[in-house]
Amino acid sequence: MVFFGYHGALPEERVIGQRFVVDVEVQADLKRAGASDQLEDTINYGELYTVAEDVVTGPPFNLIEAVAEQIAGRILSQQPLVESVIVRVRKPGVPIPGSVLGSSEVRIERGRQP
User: Fold this and answer.
1) Which pLDDT tens digit goes with each residue over 78-109?
2) What single string gives the DSSP state of each residue in the chain?
3) What distance in Å separates the CA atoms of residue 16 and residue 78, rounded to the nearest whole number?
4) Could you give the residue numbers annotated as active site?
5) Staple partner for 89: which of 4, 33, 61, 64, CB 3.0–4.6 Å?
6) How many CB atoms lie within 10 A of CB 53?
7) What residue spans define the domains of the chain?
8) Strands 2-5 and 84-91
């Protein structure tokens, strides 16, 4: 998923903004959905998209780590079937003068607390 947001530790990132690429992977038992073929028995990926969109296009964070945490936390709180989630947030344009770095990325994995 690709969104435009205003996250970053540098002041210009909060003014100019940039693209962010988000990948979300969820772990869930989908046996019931496979048998019933009913949307209410599975995870609606449109809702996962909306969570990522709301976070990335919403109020700014200094770090992409915080963006990833917000997405993971909201998915776990809103989707009872999700057992664990992996969130990757990539910033394709890294604003470091003279940098040859193409992008920066974080990957987090979170699960339900027992």
Assistant:
1) 999 999 999 999 998 766 666 556 788 999 99
2) -EEEE---SSHHHHHH-EEEEEEEEEE---HHHHHH--GGGS--HHHHHHHHHHHHTSS--S-HHHHHHHHHHHHHHH-TT--EEEEEEEESS---TT-----EEEEEEEE---
3) 31
4) 91
5) 64
6) 15
7) 2-111
8) unpaired
Residue 62 has pLDDT above 70, yes or no: yes
CATH level 3 topology of 2-111: GTP Cyclohydrolase I, domain 2 (3.30.1130)
Residue position matching structure tokens 């690709």: 2
Q: Which amino acid is at 47?
A: E
